[in-house]
Amino acid sequence: MPTPSRLLIIDNSLDSSIYSPVGHWTRHASCDFDAVMPPMGEFPHRLDAYSHVIITGSECSILSDEDWILAECDLVREMAALEIPILGSCFGQQLVVRALSGKEFVQTTETPEFGWVDTFLTVPDGQRDTVIGELPSLFSVFTSHFDEVSPLPPDWTRMAWSEDCANAAIRWLEGPVWGIQHHPEINYEDGRRLLKALPNIMPDKKNLIRKFMHASRRDSEVTAALVEAFLNNA
Fold first, then answer.
1. Catalytic residue among 24, 28, 182, 183
2. Using 50, 70 and 90 to split pLDDT, how confident is the model at 201?
3. Distance set, CA 220 to CA 98, 137, 138, 141, 216 (Å)
4. Catalytically annotated residue among 90, 145, 148, 182
5. Domains of the chain, CATH where assigned
6. In angstroms, rounded to a whole number, what is the distance separating the alpha carbons of residues 141 and 119?
7. In sequence order, which residues have a C-beta less than 8 Å from that of residue 108 and are 6 or more positions away?
8. What is the DSSP string of 175-230?
9. Pure H helices in 59-141
10. DSSP label at 40?
11. Which helix (H) or strand (E) holds 123?
12. Rounded CA gap, 181 and 163, in Å?
């Protein structure tokens, strides 16, 4: 692995005026980084320059078979073969599971989550993990998703759960790959702006968003600890 760390961010956002995950994640990372946008046809030219990879959320559904999603699944398998540590968030978590275990392990959820949700580490796996275990046993984090990892594949272990998402954080058993369904990188103010914009972005899902909106407005601000723990995993 390169030293010092150099982070690759795979940015799956479709409209950066609404959702800008690169800025959200890198304000918590002290290392150099590059970013690529697969939805725009951008992929890294080489992987040996990177010590760690963060895969972001997306407005797109993981169930889509768009060319860029299939190509990104190939990229995840290549990175996993090289044992480059990967952290996937929301769509990113679903994507690493689809790539490494199969599309049958991702689906539209019956209990989508919007707003801030309480998330609990599993005992003992979550609490002992070198990345997810650096978070509090109970933390509140922003979320916005219609799809989820379900059922949990046999080659993954559950690290955390929320009331409406059994696989809120997971780890691959065959290499350094983690996933978190929620958006820890989105802080309170950014989350409020996104929630206000969602009904206009997705008018066909306005009633669903309102139905599954969580009333809590408490953010535990765990991103810095999560990113530090992830980057410290060589």
1. 183
2. confident
3. 29, 11, 9, 6, 12
4. 90
5. 6-231 (3.40.50.880)
6. 7
7. 61, 63, 146, 147
8. SSEEEESS-TTS-HHHHHHHHHHHHHH-GGGHHHHHHTB---------HHHHHHHH
9. 67-81, 91-101, 125-128
10. G
11. none
12. 13
Indicate the SS3 state at residue 21.
helix
| Residues belonging to the chain | 234
Across the chain, what does the average pLDDT equal?
A: 95
Out of 72, 113, 148, 185, which one is annotated catalytic?
185
What is the reported pLDDT for 215? Answer: 78
Radius of gyration of the chain (CA): 16
- Classified as helix, coil or strand, 89 is strand
In the structure encoding, which two tokens stand for residue 208, read together?
Answer: 């669903």
Q: Is 183 a catalytic residue?
A: yes
The answer to whether 60 is a known catalytic residue is: no
HSE on the CB side for 9, CA within 13 Å?
24
Catalytic annotation on 165? Answer: no
Mean pLDDT to the nearest integer, 161-181: 98
